[in-house]
Write a structure and sequence with these properties.
The structure is a homotrimer. Chain A is built from 20 helices and nine strands. By secondary structure, the first copy, chain A, is mainly alpha-helical. Chain A folds into two domains: 349 residues, TIM Barrel, CATH 3.20.20.140; 101 residues, uronate isomerase, domain 2, chain A, CATH 1.10.2020.10. In chain A, helix 9 links the parallel strand 2 and strand 3. Chain A is globular and about 70 Å long. Chain A starts with 21 loop residues before the first helix and ends with a helix. At the A-B interface, helix 16, helix 17, helix 18, helix 19 and helix 20 of A face helix 4, helix 15, strand 7 and helix 18 of B.
Chain lengths: 475, 475, 475
Amino acid sequence: MSPGTTATALDLHPDRLFPAEPTVRSIARELYAEVVDLPIVSPHGHTDPAWFAEDRPFADPTTLLVTPDHYLTRMLHSQGVRLEDLGVRPRDGGPVAEPRDAWRTFAAHARLFRGTPSGLWLDHTFATVFGFDVRLGPETADHYYDGIAAALASDGFRPRALFERFGIEVLATTESPLDDLAHHDRLATDGWNDRVITTFRPDPVVDPDFDGYVANVERLGDMTGCDVTRWDGYLDALRQRRADFRARGATATDHGHPSAATADLDVRECQRLLDGARAGTLDPDESEHLRGQVLVEMAAMSLDDGMVLQLHPGSRRNHSPRILERFGRDKGADIPGPTDYVDALRPLLDRFGLEPDLRIILFTLDESTYARELAPLAGFYPCLTLGPPWWFFDSVEGMWRFRRAVTETAGFANTAGFNDDTRAFLSIPARHDVARRVDCAYLATLVAEHRLTPDDATELAVDCAVGLARRAYRL
Amino acid sequence: MSPGTTATALDLHPDRLFPAEPTVRSIARELYAEVVDLPIVSPHGHTDPAWFAEDRPFADPTTLLVTPDHYLTRMLHSQGVRLEDLGVRPRDGGPVAEPRDAWRTFAAHARLFRGTPSGLWLDHTFATVFGFDVRLGPETADHYYDGIAAALASDGFRPRALFERFGIEVLATTESPLDDLAHHDRLATDGWNDRVITTFRPDPVVDPDFDGYVANVERLGDMTGCDVTRWDGYLDALRQRRADFRARGATATDHGHPSAATADLDVRECQRLLDGARAGTLDPDESEHLRGQVLVEMAAMSLDDGMVLQLHPGSRRNHSPRILERFGRDKGADIPGPTDYVDALRPLLDRFGLEPDLRIILFTLDESTYARELAPLAGFYPCLTLGPPWWFFDSVEGMWRFRRAVTETAGFANTAGFNDDTRAFLSIPARHDVARRVDCAYLATLVAEHRLTPDDATELAVDCAVGLARRAYRL
Amino acid sequence: MSPGTTATALDLHPDRLFPAEPTVRSIARELYAEVVDLPIVSPHGHTDPAWFAEDRPFADPTTLLVTPDHYLTRMLHSQGVRLEDLGVRPRDGGPVAEPRDAWRTFAAHARLFRGTPSGLWLDHTFATVFGFDVRLGPETADHYYDGIAAALASDGFRPRALFERFGIEVLATTESPLDDLAHHDRLATDGWNDRVITTFRPDPVVDPDFDGYVANVERLGDMTGCDVTRWDGYLDALRQRRADFRARGATATDHGHPSAATADLDVRECQRLLDGARAGTLDPDESEHLRGQVLVEMAAMSLDDGMVLQLHPGSRRNHSPRILERFGRDKGADIPGPTDYVDALRPLLDRFGLEPDLRIILFTLDESTYARELAPLAGFYPCLTLGPPWWFFDSVEGMWRFRRAVTETAGFANTAGFNDDTRAFLSIPARHDVARRVDCAYLATLVAEHRLTPDDATELAVDCAVGLARRAYRL
């Protein structure tokens, strides 16, 4: 930092995120003390398994912390910053800012994150991972860049060292069925197979609207030797890849569909839809039917192999065609919309809803469904469990809304604990810390209002931190 | 309770459900002191009038408290407990658990209700009705069963004694137009006619999708001597039964439609729909029109006979066809969905919306309509009043959400006070106590933030406890 | 006030609307001290420019404060008061209550506003503008009427004097393109052109369902000399009027569409829709397309002339045809409904969404879109800014819900500060005071929970009070 600048202190208050009322705060502190040192269980996320397999130093501050984090880049974009200026490479290979310049641009806009979860995560990461004691801003941009760059060059900041330092018990990555899982094989060789596990995410070969779907399905056939032009061969190929994933520690599948639609069609219709998908002739309703049918097939396979099915519907992805065309997917232009569960899940629930051995974890980007649909569904059907607040709602207020909306109908036992769901590896401790603090704050409020006994609150705090996730994901 | 077990104390804290902040809590306490001893006004519920007519002892703890309470059975079902193991008899008469065994199963899962309204109601009932001072759990299951069974055998726990002890001023039950109202006649003979009144719930003869609709309508014709094959005869039959109900104290009708749709069709179309319903040939839209038309006819009759019309839309009932087939209705598989009021009520409101003598009480299972649709509607149309938070939302958080979403647009005067809406007779004091506490907590918050004077808050606390309900239901 | 009555004291507590918890309250007080004396920036509202142009005394208490305020009249109407009894003149010229009688009716129902924003605004106006120290009620009706009438007759209560006294920096009125803007010309003559500015609200010539649309469009042609029967001439006419408005200080346009639908059609289809609108032959979908197309044309013009585009969708206006027929528009029978933004705005955003120089301010009457759609949209697209809580949600709870739902995804920088949006001139200080208090209370909560530094909170409090509005509206 240059001398004479006005950088303000960065200190993480030990009571942060706890309600101000002293009685509640005191109870929250006690509960938090029971969970602060528990290991991190991360059953759903998007870190790169290559990091842990190869254990090479991270490249530079910007490439690690800014450019790939669409939570950050979209916010600056909303205030007129070009994505290129944050290092986001256009598909045509056009020029982007140098890492240090991009970092300065980021630092100049750090104030945009006041009051946001990204702001909390960044401060926690900067303070606890890198030891900064001044806030990021234009005047501290280089101080930060140099400090982080120096740290990243040291052995203590290589991926496995950080993994150990973060106290991670298990971390799930997410791979396509077309992935050869070589990184996970390498991890197994090194005895890390129980620590970094994979998750089966078949969207690229399931969603006819996915970029490259036809070639993807063909490649699936090549990888498995199955005749993926036939419905039963296509299912066999998926089944075979599930087994491959399961052998690399996967306990779950994940499905990022636009809606929660499910279907239970006869085989002839399934074949017709598969043919249409490969020919590129499906209309939107047919695509929806095909995705919904595969989801039901996945549930059937889960009954056989025990994998937990995660459903993440409701994002209108790639809302801006220009951004998609110029930069590709996952650049922040994904906008939630209203999502139906009650009618959409009916075909699946009619067929498997009463199976006690099936586990389906439901997520949503439509909070109006928490109390209206999701809690009543999970509070009745044995197979359903509610995932934690997701994406935009992985936030302090989002977690409060989730607990308040869901608990009274579904209780705690029908929820799945916390997911960090992130590609931002260094933010994982911050994210779990926020979740633990908010859960303790919520439980403390119930205790202070005599809606829960202190003993129950302690047990539930531990459950929310680790127990529910371990049970929900069969870890 | 067996010696040496780990049962924890059950004590109801006098400040429960009040905010922890000392100033607010102190105001809430003062407000609550004004309402705690007021009588219970219960204008909408589902207790069995036979209980009060015959005044026989209740059978056993399980049959009274667990098996018929789908709030409880659905929660255990969601965690893999079979309904039969809770005493729920399949339609085919298959075997169910003995009451004591079912009670033990229930007790073993009592922890599922932590943080739920059922948990609050059960604790209140156990402590205040039966005097238990340890919590229900696996180790106290028999202690509870034996204690409750012994109590139920005593005169002080017969229905009328409990009714007196609970301080109930008036209790409305709900009957079908096909009910002979013999229990209410018996109650009248005993001078209880003003204390236990009936409510006219015509769904079985109004909803073409109701189980047995055709036979039900025929039976309606037989009971009334009206030609129910003709639209005017069918309406006459309903009118006649309303008069019969009115003679047994009914001040209200109740309508459990899937949606809030209303219709204002010409007589020829009405006749066509009635014919179709009796022939079983209506499509879903036509069924909707028929139900909506009858609702408007009910409003017209209300203008004549003064009965209050209650509309309870929005439940997708019998979501699980397997549960419906095996166990019948009302087994917890009823899931809310989005519910429109603005367009749906237009035909009714166009015709009668400005009538000052009509009273329609609207309920919802879609909380997103509270502030968006219901409060603006009730804040304009003289005939509309908002019912309290219903079913899943008859809860601490649900009541807070209701008051916060509705009051600023509709005020208090356009709301109808509390309904317990329960078949669980012993929980009635608990439910009213929760409502009074939350209302006092809400009002105390307004006082503490200088948004309401203390005198106004006192008056409104009494209104919320009894005054609004008496006025809304014309008691 | 008559001697011996029971009027209660009216005093505005200095801590009103601040949370009761002492730490939070103390922080809120400090923040509020920084903003309480800032000028009022009112970039969107509906006061009558004639008041400020002519600066004549207001007529009488009822005509000023009650009759034109549909927030008040609808609430009394909901409790059975006839609009005529509040001075609302029927279109047929039928009789209405005398001002003093209407005032008494209003006073007799003042209790209906307990817990509502109108109650807060009225008390603030009565206490600070008129100096009352007893509450309005039946027993103080004449005391109030006489006191207000006397005040209004004095020079200190003429519009410009009040404008100065209120500390208004700039006030935007809203006019139709058919307005000759004579009042604003008069204001310019008097050097008030920067203080009272206009806003271009083209609904009467854009919405084919608007009363008198065909004649309105013809008049637009007459005023501009453009051939409004041709699509390009029609656009030229709008462009010309925008320039006229801009010359009278307008920095914004405003659009009160039933939905947020936008369209990007070819010129031939635009001409066809315009022809159909003028012929009265459009079906509802076509009317929607036409409105949506004009909205996109307005955005294109905004790129040229720099005017900010405000979109206020979601009201089902004139819900009661009888009220519309008898009294006309804006009588309280406007009911919100679900409103889609994600798909509706796509044509507009596809075309202009990435333009950094375009500013679109989005409002909503569907709070379920705050976190689900609006914050993610504004948190990505550079052109989008979120307007403050509107209409029914311009309230204490409404503002809390907005901040909690929006901030974590969109931050503060993507919001537009406060609008009073009122025709009730005397309530303007009250409305801004409520907004400043709630924003300070919200920020104080973040500070107390260590989610925001005190320095940032101070800066943001000032931004929320004046800075964001000035920037969003380019004032």
